[in-house]
Amino acid sequence: MKLFGKAKPANNSQDTIAKLRLTLEMLEKRQKFLQERSDREELEAKKLVVQKKKREALLCLKKRNNFLNEVNKLQGSYDTLSSQIFALENAKMNMEIMNSMREGAQSLKELHGHLTVDKVDDTIEEIQTQMEIHEEISRAISQPLGTQLDDEEDLLRELAEYEQEDLDMQLLNIKAPSRESLPTPTQVKCNYFLKLLLTTHHTIKINTNHNLIFFNTI
């Protein structure tokens, strides 16, 4: 029975993973230390062999093997802890995924609780109805007034008259000779006088002061 306070909650998976990683770091340091001891014993054995100290060299090799055996054991523990960490991380991720999916399903359930197929159909039908009303109102507003229609008809008639006048002018320009080819009144008079002189016998008196010409028959 606990007299003071409440029992501490069990460590969650994140704390467990953190502790396992600390243990892995400790194992790595221990392995490194034993491996260095093993390497030194092997070097010492080689030196003793050169010195012809076979018994001492054999003892160094036995120590090396003991260190190597311990390194191998630690490696086994290291692999086991690594597998546990990997499994815990995957389990934690799966749990988070499941919780998220559960929350999502609950949210969808709550939303769909206020929404049915009939309500959706009614809403869509109402939207279509309002859009049709909007189109009718837009057409009614944009339709010109009666006076505007009359004014437009008058303008169209006036435009047709302008077009007919332009067409008549084009036809006249095609049929009528150009102004340059027509004789001027002065040319007509001169031509007449010359013809008269050639066909009859006249005397011509010219009054230069008044620009007058007199004809007398011979």
Automatic annotation (TrEMBL):
The keyword ATP-binding does not apply. One of its GO terms (cellular component) is multivesicular body. It is found in: Endosome. The keyword Lyase does not apply. Keywords: Coiled coil, Endosome. InterPro entries: Snf7_fam. GO terms for biological process: endosome to lysosome transport; late endosome to vacuole transport via multivesicular body sorting pathway; lysosome organization; regulation of receptor recycling; vesicle budding from membrane. Its main location: other. Residues 10-44, 117-165 form a coiled coil. Signal peptide: none annotated. Transmembrane segments: none annotated. Belongs to the SNF7 family. PANTHER family: CHARGED MULTIVESICULAR BODY PROTEIN (PTHR22761), GH13992P (PTHR22761:SF10). This is SNF7 family protein. It comes from Dictyostelium purpureum.
